[in-house]
Specification:
With 154 residues, this protein is an alpha/beta fold. Helix content is 31%, strand content 29%. Strands 5-4-1-2-3-6 form a six-stranded mixed β-sheet, sandwiched between helices.
């Protein structure tokens, strides 16, 4: 009998796991973002910040960019490492992964930055997850605690 997916090792498909989330309150309004990066070696990085005024797409895309930069800065041998990055914004994930002719013109500058960062991460997989499965980074983003960067790497 195969093991239950609930008991599956979260690192079975990647060396590092990452999540991103952004929010605008109201929408448009004050934007906040958060990202989390976890390594098999118990390394843990968290980043959250307020980014000014915008809408939810601005916040989510800037959260993606922050996560990609965190991965670039913190993952050793990033060009040879598998990283699974998850977010709950279908708009942003579909925009950055989709064909240019279907992309949002208003989000072009974000898409170009994200694709540039992603080009240096050949082992990166970007995946959409439902909001109810993005709870840890969502709670961090909504926490009103200005963490900026917490480095708890072992």
């Amino acid at each position: 009998m195969p093991p239950s997916s609930k008991n599956k090792d979260p690192f079975s498909d990647a060396d590092w796991l990452a999540w991103f989330d952004g929010s605008a309150k109201p929408n448009p309004g004050q934007c906040n973002l958060a990202c989390i990066l976890k390594g098999k070696n118990n390394a843990l990085y968290r980043h959250t910040t307020s980014i000014g005024y915008g809408d939810s797409s601005d916040a989510e895309y800037q959260a993606l960019l922050a996560a990609l930069q965190l991965i670039t800065d913190k993952v050793p041998d990033v060009d040879r490492t598998k990283v699974l990055l998850r977010g709950d914004s279908q708009v942003v994930i579909n925009d950055v992964l989709g064909p240019d002719h279907k992309a949002s013109a208003r989000l072009t500058h974000y898409r170009l930055q994200a694709r540039s960062l992603m080009a240096a991460l050949p082992g990166l997989t970007l995946k959409w997850v439902p909001r109810h499965k993005n709870t840890e980074v969502d709670a961090l983003m909504r926490s009103n605690v200005d963490i900026k960067m917490t480095d708890t790497a072992a």
